[in-house]
Amino acid sequence: MNMTNVKHLTMALACVATIGCGGDDTGTGNATTGGATEAGSTTAAASTTAPDTTSPTTTEPPTSTSSDATSASGSDASTTDINSTTATTDATTTDATTTDATTGAAPVCGDTVVDPGEECDDGNDIDEDACTNLCKNAACGDAIVGPGEACDDGNDVDDDACSNTCASAACGDAVVQAPEECDDGNDIDEDACLSTCLKAVCGDSVVFMGSEECDDANDIDDDGCSNACKLPTCMDKAKNGSETDVDCGGGQCPKCGLGNACSMDADCGIGPCLNNKCVSNKSCKSLFAGDNTLKDGKFMLDPDEGGPNPAFEAYCDMTHDGGGWTLIMKSINTNFHYDDVLWENNLTLNPADFDFVTDAKKSKYQTFLTVGFGELRTSATDSTSSQIYVLGAPVANATALFLGPGVEVNKTMLLPYFEGIHAAYDKHLAVGGCNPANKYVNYGLNLKKLNGVAFLPDGGQCDWNGGARFGLRVNGNHNGTGNHAGQGWGTYTTIDNVYVAKMKQLLWVR
To answer: What is the pTM of this model?
Structure first.
């Protein structure tokens, strides 16, 4: 290679290195290049950073011998000069090159340019929009409440105040957060978790299907829903629902027994409902025991208490002689003869007639046959006066009493009561010493069975020959005819077998 070619190559390399060749007369920065040089010489570019300390350098052309040697050896000297020049140029032109050929300032988040490492860059300092101030896309879990988020606590705890979907804790979100007891994410109120996120319990006023039969939200155990949230039944051994007592009454359950609570007669299987209790109505006495404020009058009695015999109407005296008296017979200015079959058979006479005023009326009521008692009482129709006899032992009914034996109560007593209920014709004639004596029974029951029918002379006008079913045997006046008879209920005489001593009386038992 000749020197001319070496120069051209050297200049080309220098121009490339300085990136500023614009012609022979053009320099880079403040550096200048000298005028025409001799063949074989190279002018180095001046440094742009130190113009005052760098001077143009001219390299003398080598001798032909050296040129030949250099040419023969690969131009080591020329190569060294060129490399030296190039290195100088690189070192001194790097800053100038970077400054002049640039893209601007160093990349930063917020410059509106999405640089490497950035997901977004909106150029603002609003941290809660779609692009955070860290140039990251807004996301649930970044601890910033971004668009569409109700909250963002930056953690993965799903049951705190902010869920992992960045929704504020709320009942119905299917996540249990305090103070919720449960959260099934539905609005079905009848399952195990209420729509209020409370666990279903008995007493919350919501019927938990499959577990509760009812739920009235109160602690009243005997209403229509028990405290165990069970509907009342007639076999749950509890008073509840419409029941008036345990498993009875109220129209839905069996009728209640005696002594059980009730609200009306229909609640009771036996007897009426008195003072909210089912009371026996086998007699007026049992009714009075249930309510001692009852008044005199007619009541339904059922002596066999639900047995085969139907209840019937009877008359009760609830206000005299202690109350509770059951009427079994009446005699209004008439009487029953001692030998009348009605005293000992199972028939009745005018059993529904409770007229106590009309003369010549008499009745034998159903109570005579059915009501048990331990006391016998005769009284005026207005009950202002009476005579009571207490039996030695209770009897099943009046029929049993009058079918029984004669009963001696007293031999010497002349009872003013019986003396006072009859007309003067039938009163005792106390003449010639004819007064009761120990010789004959004169007061008791079924006296004919004791005294018989024989004429019993006792001197003078004292011929004791009569008696009664319940009353006295007296020396009747009978205007001196000797037609002596008894006094009281069911009188008789041996002189006239049809004669009876009339009276206006009612016969009661208790």
So the answer is: 0.62
